[in-house]
Design goal:
The chain is an alpha/beta fold and 235 residues long. It has twelve helices and nine strands. The protein has helices at residues 2-14, 24-27, 35-38, 40-43, 50-53, 56-61, 63-71, 82-93, 107-110, 137-142, 166-178, 228-232; strands at residues 18-22, 97-101, 116-118, 121-128, 134-135, 153-157, 181-185, 206-211, 222-225. It binds zinc ion. Its EC number is 2.3.1.286.
């Protein structure tokens, strides 16, 4: 383990084309709970599954339930943590460093990362589902109805049953093809199609997984079963 850990740290330091694939575990140290833990209060009642609360069907049929749940996902006071900051610093040192994130909280950008693919969209990009005008997130947090046209507002996040942005997929494929080191951090890497991105990697690239819980991949990888904060402080 110690040896593998050292080798993983060396690989990241020596990488020329570095890609981070990040998930909820990178945001929890900033005090952003993942949606599954937040959905507990709804699922306890037996009324709704976490996937339903963030589905297109829920948005269409139960606007209030959807709105009440989504509002809880906003943590505008959250600040980037040492993991976000380390990734941003690595981008300064190695210009071909990218982050592809499942997180919708914009913390990578707040940390200073510029090459970020928001694979599941962003909570801070809100628009009207009727007239498509953009409004700021603060307006949405006060009311989910668009004052301009009466349409229902929503954040530009990818809901269950909805397709991904073509651009996010294309960009992810391109940066993964070019990567020599890929680091999967703070995610169980089970959510599809995010987890399928790994198939776009070049055969020569090295994959390192840093996560508290074990992760299974069908490509060769180095597993570092460790808290992301403790690992990233040693890079
Ligand atoms: Zn509108």
């Amino acid at each position: 383990m110690t040896n593998l850990r050292q080798q993983a740290l060396d690989s990241i330091r020596q990488a020329n084309h570095l890609v981070f694939l990040t998930g909820a575990g990178v945001s929890t140290p900033s005090g952003v709970p993942d949606y599954r833990s937040l959905s507990g209060v709804y699922t306890k009642t037996g009324m709704a599954q976490p996937e339903y609360l963030l589905s297109h069907t829920c948005f269409l049929r139960e606007q209030d339930l959807f709105y009440q749940f989504v509002k809880q996902l906003y943590h505008p006071q959250a600040r980037p943590n040492s993991v976000h900051l380390k990734m941003a610093q690595l981008e300064k040192e190695k210009p071909d460093t990218w982050v592809i994130s499942q997180n919708i909280d914009q913390l990578h950008r707040k940390a200073g990362s510029q090459q970020v693919v928001d694979f599941h969209g962003s909570l801070y990009d809100v628009y009207c589902s009727k007239c498509y005008q953009q409004v700021d997130a603060w307006t949405y947090l006060e009311d989910n109805q668009h004052a301009g046209c009466g349409g229902i507002l929503r954040p530009n996040i990818v809901l269950y049953e909805e397709g991904l942005e073509e651009m996010a997929i294309y960009q992810s494929q391109q940066v993964l093809k070019a990567a020599d080191v890929i680091v999967i951090a703070g995610t169980s890497f089970k959510v599809s199609p995010f987890c399928q991105l790994i198939y776009y990697k070049s055969p020569d690239s090295q994959v390192i997984v840093v996560n508290q819980d074990d992760v299974y991949l069908s490509v060769p990888y180095t597993m570092i079963q460790e808290d992301v904060v403790s690992f990233f402080k040693d890079i």
